[in-house]
User: Which sequence fits this backbone?
């Protein structure tokens, strides 16, 4: 049996680690979500902090998520998703198509960063409450100006690919991430996302199609899937989703 | 002779396109910086806008930089740098090492995004003057809390690689981007960067080594290298670089 992958990510939130978890789950790849183990089994925050302080062997990561496979250590969620996708039949064949999958993944990651910026515009290291005024302005701009440009872009990719997936007929890792993006935006901005997604039925259909994949459906029902909460990338603060016309 | 690459990027700023330009220049690859051509030769903003509105053929990009090579269309600066690096001997051989190069590139891109966020924390679509208060707070946090963590990370990568480059003995595309990051931070925050870089001599040595590469040295002297200015990722607003103790 193959040695399981080890995923190092914050144990209490979905965050950027969730893009990786979804690829592992869709691939049916055995993995250990290390920080979710009990501390006496090497879990908790300690192994994450050790990585960030340069105390673990292998190529240095700046921050989680971190994938460890034997001696191989890889960070950056988009790079990890590409690596896993290529190893487990969840990436296209051929250099050009692989680059297109990476391009889509990076654009999804950019939108996730923008969504994070709505509640932490000044710094991820300060509390939300200490940057709430800026967060209100950032969220207004995100919902009014950004989502109405970003969602139609992915809709256009799905139109051009011929569907049902972003790369055409074959599921690839960016599809899993677009599912997560749609779920996260719907959690954070139930009203704002519903408005923006009215004109993007292909994205909503892709989201439902990913959720119905047998391995993903089983994962979403399991305790391995953490709930959305106010620690991750997508946070629900009702005041940030309020429309000024209301 | 090989067909030249076409780069589509804003003609008046370095921005994220500069990471791509540096790979093209270091590779000695023929390319046309399309938007810098006169409008009657197809230059200007028009071809960029056409791409963003989905009016050009090929795989859809969300935003510039966009690389066109024959029928192949690729967006996202990190993906373009990886693609060019792999084609022109500026990426490592082997899947694992290629992924490490991509990881480094993505981490450099994250720092560039954070640098952009210092002057546009609320939204890239609003004027600096309309978010100046938030920008002052974001810059303070970036210089006091973020750079002192981020620069030592790249210093540690250089220590572990054995140098002189991030991946060890062979120049690769992330080295060119780390040069650009250091140059950009030094332009935007001459005082803040000098303070943070005091403890990272390997980064400064790498920056000088890239600048001395014959093709890069020629490029930096040429008119093809646009100057830093207040339109790009790295902008110099003296008030954002001021230390509160001064």
Assistant:
């Amino acid at each position: 049996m193959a040695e399981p992958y080890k995923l190092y990510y914050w144990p209490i939130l979905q965050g950027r680690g969730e893009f990786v978890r979804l690829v592992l789950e869709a691939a049916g790849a055995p993995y250990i979500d290390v920080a979710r183990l009990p501390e006496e089994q090497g879990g908790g925050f300690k192994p994450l902090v050790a990585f960030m302080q340069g105390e673990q062997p292998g190529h240095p990561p700046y921050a989680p998520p971190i994938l460890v496979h034997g001696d191989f250590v890889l960070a950056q969620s988009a790079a990890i998703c590409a690596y896993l996708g290529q190893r487990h039949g969840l990436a296209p064949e051929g250099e050009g198509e692989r680059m297109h999958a990476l391009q889509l993944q990076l654009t999804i990651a950019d939108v996730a960063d923008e969504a994070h910026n709505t509640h932490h515009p000044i710094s991820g290291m300060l509390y939300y409450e200490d940057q709430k005024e800026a967060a209100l302005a950032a969220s207004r701009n995100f919902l009014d100006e950004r989502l109405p440009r970003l969602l139609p872009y992915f809709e256009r990719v799905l139109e051009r690919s011929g569907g049902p997936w972003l790369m055409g007929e074959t599921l690839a890792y960016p599809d899993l991430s677009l599912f997560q993006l749609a779920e996260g935006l719907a959690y954070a901005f139930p009203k704002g996302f519903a408005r923006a997604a009215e004109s993007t039925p292909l994205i909503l259909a892709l989201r439902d199609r990913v959720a119905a994949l047998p391995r993903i459906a089983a994962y979403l029902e399991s305790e391995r899937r953490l709930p959305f909460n106010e620690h991750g990338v997508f946070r629900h603060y009702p005041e940030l989703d309020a429309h000024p016309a209301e």
The longest strand of chain A covers residues 5-8. Chain A has ten helices and four strands. The domain at 95-213 of chain A is CATH 1.20.1050.10 (Glutathione S-transferase Yfyf (Class Pi); Chain A, domain 2).
